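Here is a typical protein record:
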Amino acid sequence: MSITYNPIGLMKDINENLAPFRKSQADAMAGFGKLATAAMAEGTVSMKHKELIALAIGITQHCSGCIAFHVKALHRLGCTRAELEEVMAICVYMGGGPGLMNAAEALDAWDAIDAPKAA
């Protein structure tokens, strides 16, 4: 299944579009990066579980970029599609119909990121 959402292209576009901002606002972006690193670090809650939480928030906030980047991180951390789908069910429960539409994006992102591995 593929919908018009292109997570790989979206991540590339976001990174390219933010490149000048990263230069002009280097201190702010460094601070954001440190916050992200500290918040997502392995601790009492595993990095994978933190990424699942972040993805759920991204879905309920309707952030396509968040979905793409957090699914990519989950893929790298060894998350399974079954784990992803259980979290999508919680998103649908908490977010209703809009959550279901964003869950479709997250599942499509998983398939797009997983495709090179499957080939």
